[in-house]
Amino acid sequence: GSSWPSVPPAPVHGCHGGATDRERAVALYLAVRDGFRYDPYRIDLSPEGMAASSVLAHGHGWCVPKAALLTAACRAAGIPARMGFADVRNHLSTERMRETMKTDLFIWHGYTDIWLDGQWRKATPAFNIELCDRFGLLPLTFDGENDSIYHPFDKSGARHMEYVHQRGAFDNMPLAQIVADFQAVYGGWLDSSDGGSARSGTTSVLHGASFADDVEQEAAR
Description:
Blueprint: H1 21-35, E1 37-38, H2 47-50, H3 52-58, E2 60-61, H4 63-76, E3 81-89, H5 95-101, E4 106-116, E5 119-123, H6 129-135, E6 162-170, H7 175-186, E7 190-191, E8 203-204, H8 211-220
Parallel strand pairs: 1-2
Antiparallel strand pairs: 3-4, 3-6, 4-5, 7-8
């Protein structure tokens, strides 16, 4: 099955008013960034869980399916788009995430590559503005002209998400590779619904925890 919904996603409706592709892309970026909560505790690496439609269905998602949603929304609006991936440090996280992942490296961080005015421009719709406000962080803006990937990690912009390794852009989500790499790197972060080893799991063990509650604790540190 394709990662892209067959019908225009909800955020597209009402966003056709922009006079240019750039204005439409910026409107779609904001709709996906802020219309769907970022929640890295409910990672589901199944084809259904990683589809753009899962973000629409649940009202939340993590960076990869949110990037898939923005890609699908742009395509539905007639703007060429694809998914981009990179391994990053200083990714927005909580103490529980760091303890579970056992590393500060977040592999396969997802963003969207959007074709505007003759070139590909990177946009990262992961972190909704309410989440950034609670962390005391500046939200990542996208103007349709400049790449938007280096999320600031303090209000002064002194610390940013660090891109350690660019994995490139993909027309279709490389799901099998993402799953294999997550299982190899994070192991215990993923449980197995079939009772097998943790490394064969596709669901985050943090499903039962509240990301919102942990964000409150993190912000108070």
